[in-house]
């Protein structure tokens, strides 16, 4: 029976059985747990419908691979600008804000997991919008989230093209490099399940970490960064513990940090492909520990040694040779990030088209053709956005402020309050601890609106400044984007 337009999972009997990957299909807490494809019979899932050996195994992720995918969703383009953010804010407040926002998004990530367990039929924020606000909420959140992922994927294509420019010394037109990246990304993103893509995210995470560790070592042993005045001229890193940014500069930096942590809404799609969704919290703890630690440690180390002379992206800070080495190591990670951010929005559209249809979980010709069409369309739109918008960097900041802040902070806090109201926990006699949690969520909602408005203001101001100074490039430009 449908509830608010969303088909719920089959009711399951209460059981204290332990979720074991080796066990046969088990139902517990209104959630069907899948097993390895070779051993599963027909089961019913709240999102994918009837799953059996005739279709893709959309419930094949273990918690470790889930964590790696979650890390890769967040740990990519954002970490490359952390040294610049620390300079804008100052080392001390920058690190405090990095950790604080990491913990706040960890809270909203946790809300996603608890909400998904309570509502197995939810696959995206659009489904959340349907439950909380009806059809209008569903459409608004679907468009916002899809558009956000398309912009992130476009940024990923540009990041990968930057690596190719650095490695080849701009051997081809940048637009051609972006097109090559789009073709490669589409080919990998077309793999049907996150379970089968997860091997590539392992490579991507190792690549990004290796490149940043290599950069940190390189700038640590060099006499001075490549962009600093060279010997015998004196130079000063100008590393500041506390800086004095304007409100717009500070909010632009904070919006970038929020953008870097904004994988939260994508975690609905990831947990939907887990064998055992109850192990999501284990994956979340590992993910956030790695991401927060990586942002803080790698950002602080690079900024300490490079200071004001940090390149953007940071991988170009150690000279031409090391730039090639760092980008060579990072390239798989940049590609992997683009793959995830092209796969997820394509699957949003795909699930939306075939929800409650047998084509969703069966390898029918209609299933395959539509899936490939979703991939091709989404990658094509990301390619066009990446190449057609002259002030892409600042526009991406604007999109991040407008979309990532409400999608990864505001909506999740509303979900927490709405779920307590639905279950009857929100009442006058609730505990002091629960009241504090509600007050904290309400304050976080207000804070997220402030960040969204000021972040958009800062981005618009930056776009105006670039246009006045002529710091823009023509659409589909051939200019080298690796020399910043």
Automatic annotation (TrEMBL):
Transmembrane portions of the chain: 75-104, 145-164, 170-192, 199-221, 250-271, 283-306, 326-346, 367-389, 395-418, 439-460
Signal peptide coordinates: none
Amino acid transporter transmembrane domain: residues covered: 61-460
Localization terms from the record: Membrane
Topology in the lipid bilayer: Multi-pass membrane protein
Pfam families reported for this sequence: Aa_trans
Family per similarity comment: Belongs to the amino acid/polyamine transporter 2 family.
Record protein name field: Amino acid transporter transmembrane domain-containing protein
UniProt organism field: Cutaneotrichosporon oleaginosum
